[in-house]
Amino acid sequence: MNRRVNISKAHSETFKALGKLSKAATEAAAAADISPQLCELLKIRASQINGCAYCLRLHTKDAVKLGETQDRLAVLPAWRESEYFTAVERAALALTEAITEVSDHQVPDEVYVPVSQVLTEEQISAVSWLAITINAYNRVAITSHYTVKP
């Protein structure tokens, strides 16, 4: 197997800038009354879609530390089919998925309009920035082949 360049180390200042963006997105989420637990769920869901094992492990551990249950984590990929999630969580998950899958279908009105009926403008913006930053982190980890060991 070819050795992968760890782009977070090769251009560490760029990676640090992503960290600052992530911190700002987290602060925006807190200011918009998006709980830290929901922030972790959104990061996990985007990471599931992107297939990022490194971020999945990291954010699942963080979610559990914040009190997330194994039941909710287990059904997260099928959240639409469960009654585990609140209206706010469902709206945030739908928006996060649409942003993560933007190359497939943009962010369609069929998703955005119902989301905008549940989330405030500040919450939509905060969730969007969380989704954008975790997608960037997923791409760094996947491109660099971050290893995940037991």
Description:
This protein has 150 residues and is mainly alpha-helical. The chain contains 9 helices and no strands. Helix 3 (36-50) runs antiparallel to helix 4, helix 3 (36-50) packs parallel to helix 6 and helix 3 packs across helix 9.
List the helices and strands and how they pair.
Layout: H1 7-10, H2 12-31, H3 36-50, H4 53-65, H5 70-75, H6 87-100, H7 102-105, H8 109-116, H9 121-144
Structural class by secondary-structure content = mainly alpha
Say how many strands there are: 0
**Average pLDDT score:** 96
Give helix and strand order, one letter per element, not per position: HHHHHHHHH
Gyration radius over CA: 15 Å
Report how far the terminal alpha carbons are from each other: 21 Å
Low-confidence stretches: none
Assembly context of the chains:
single chain
Q: Number of helical runs?
A: 9
Question: Which percent range describes the beta-strand content?
Answer: under 5%
Report helical residue fraction.
over 70%
Major sheet size, sense and barrel closure: none
Envelope shape? globular
Put the structure in a nutshell.
The protein is an all-alpha fold and 150 residues long. It has helices at residues 7-10, 12-31, 36-50, 53-65, 70-75, 87-100, 102-105, 109-116, 121-144.
